[in-house]
Amino acid sequence: MSPTLVRHQLPNTGPVHDDGPAAPTGTRARDWAEIQERMLVPLYEAAYDRLGIGPGTRLLGLGCGSGLALLLAAARGAQVSGVDADERRLELARERLTPDGMPEVTRLVSGGLADAAPKGAAFTVITAFHPVGCGGGAQELAAALTAATALAERGSAVVLGGWGPVERCAAAGVLRVAQRLAAPAPAFGAGWRPAGRDDLEELAERTGLRPDGSGRVACPFGYADMASAVRGMLSTGLFDGALEVAGPRQVEKELVEALHPYQRGDGTLWMANVFRYLIARTR
Which residue range or ranges hold the Methyltransferase domain (predicted)? Predict the structure, then answer.
């Protein structure tokens, strides 16, 4: 897979649909792929640079979404596999990673991890870039990591991603809208909470991993206009509880208000954020 293919498949930041921000799940999956997912490219690249991802790497992406992180690893020569519970995002990943005429080096599944394992070989790298503490899935992620490490070589790298300190994440103020509006109905979950200082280390310890370094990466969120920003933020899934409780109109209104301070004179929006990653090793 060539670097040219990667450049051509990186999404643009403009709006891509005419329907409202509270769009169907399938539409929001495409909004994620075409608007929001690219914001985390610096995180992916920093981890890949540090680990020297390239030919000979057999990489498993947990929560691989629409596959941009896998695409970047494949462009470096890695053999990639991915697992995600969202079939709509996974279908977009298949479109990106398995075009006609390309060699079959990619396994993308929504089911069990064993189906994603490369034939006759163990994984050498596992990634879980979805920020720990978002979406209320910490226990599920711990279980997935435990299962995934059983398919990896001893000493393999496991990359865990998370938000940086709240004071260095402009998006935190916007995401608090989701937390506040979802609060009256805890069953839906707030979807987001401020990152704890040791979230990643605690997850590594819980899953029997050995920490082996960490880093911080600037991941600014940039949007072409307010409509793109609203669609991008809603595509994260972190506002789902708020949508259920408060309804689309109220969520959109408060989201626009929270985003307004980050809008520039030319209509674009820019929010400076810092993300954190931990590299751990299987035992």
Answer: 60-134
